[in-house]
Amino acid sequence: MSLQINYKKKYSNNKIDNLVLFINENFDLLNLKKHISSEEYVFIYDLLKVSDKNNKIIFYDISSKKKIILVSIKKNLSNSEVETLGAKFYDQIKDIKQNNFIINSDTIKDNSKNLIGNFLHGIKLKSYTFEKYKSKKNKKKIIITVTGNNIPSKADQLNFMAIEYGTFYARDLVSEPGNILHPDEYAKRLNSLKKNGLKINIYNEKKLKKLGMHTLLGVGQGSIRGSYLVTMEWKGLKDNSKPIAFVGKGVCFDTGGISLKPAKFMEDMTYDMAGSATVVGLMKSLAMRKAKVNAIGVVGLVENMPGGNAQRPGDIVKSYSGKTVEILNTDAEGRLVLADALTYTEEKYKPKFIIDLATLTGAIIVSLGSEYAGLFSNNDKLSNQLIKSGEETEEKVWRMPLNKNYDKLIDSKNADMQNINYVGGAGSTTAAQFLQRFILNKTPWAHLDIAGMAFSKYGGALNSGGATGYGVRLLNKLVEKYYE
């Protein structure tokens, strides 16, 4: 299924186009009288008496070929509420026979350009599907034409498009199967982002060994595929001010390694690279909308496989930071990838802050389900900014504890630390506590555990199931609101 959105200033009401009209929460039809024929007005006026006004969207069949659709807008709706309404509208039109819709933007006055833009944004986010590998694709095409004087400006259209493209790119990456999007292919795709204006650097195994990134390399050594660290740089300011930095876990497939996962649901481990996909999608969005900020994206790309050369439980490896790690469980691999990436990002770029994202622990799903990502941070200001940005985009985060008292659970007798807490409990916190040890210079840092948010079997307000692209809109709002 495809979606096409057109913009046209003028429109004359006819007998075949489905007409979408915005109406206030009291369903005051009088304001719409000049936009429809007298016959249509009388018809809807009569049926409105018996309509369920709890429904925000009401369909009226004017004929076999035409519907008039009323969308109720209450005062002071937030942007996210309007986006959700747009997504709900798409859900209701995608399965009906008619495929041409006219949205009259002049039927709503309050903050109308933002309202129309966010309504369309919700429609587009909800319309995403991943049908790349289906031999029979849904060929239906929905055409929406927006008319009137309240069409979003070209600049607003570009901003919305940049966020959508970044979100869709992240969803595409997460949706790809592991035999297609292995680390070699992933690195190749990231190199193509140069055309968006990003500076791309790819560090292969030879370079990573020279740098001393042995925690990252250890995860991927059982795979026939390569392991990589990829950096993406966006310079949106003319000065050399400190950048902001985003780091993502990119485990393209996670078998658990020698500490093998159960077979049931292992197929879902294609999305264990969702943290990296969010970082990539964000960087693409920032470049597309030419964000006025200096930003860095760093992703560690590996495949965690069992094999004759795979890392063993009990191995001790030396990280880029110089700290040593005892590997007690090879399925606690994401933190090993992030460990080297975090220290490298802090040392090389000296950023204002670092935010890392990872599908890191099942424990965070036990804690927060699929409603909030877990937020762990050493900085109250950054945490509050993320919380507020999450509330505005409905990509919510919930702050979880960090405390030095948890350190004893990851201290090792044989190395500087161990990669899991074998005592039990606080699985997400001890993982975050582990990561914090690789922030060496007190840089403001936040860790988002997105294990419950990156993939949805049943769909959410703005996605129809599968990869969600969670975090692209959240972090774009953070940048836009606080750092541009």
Annotation keywords:
Leucine Aminopeptidase, subunit E, domain 1; elongated; 13 helices; eight-stranded mixed sheet; Aminopeptidase; six-stranded mixed sheet; single chain; alpha/beta; 19 strands; 2 domains
Number of strands: 19
**Helix proportion:** 25-40%
How many distinct helices?
Answer: 13
- Pick out the low-confidence regions: none
Neighbour order of strands in the largest sheet = 7-8-10-9-13-17-14-15
CATH C-level class of the largest domain is Alpha Beta
* Overall structural domain count: 2
Q: Please tell me the CATH architecture of the largest domain by its name.
A: 3-Layer(aba) Sandwich
What's the oligomerization state?
single chain
**Strand coverage percent:** 15-25%
For the largest beta-sheet, the strand count, sense and barrel status come to: 8 strands, mixed
Based on secondary structure, the structural category is alpha/beta
CATH superfamily of the largest domain: Zn peptidases
N-to-C CA distance: 36 Å
**Radius of gyration in whole Å, from Cα?**
25 Å
CATH topology of the largest domain: Aminopeptidase
Shape: elongated
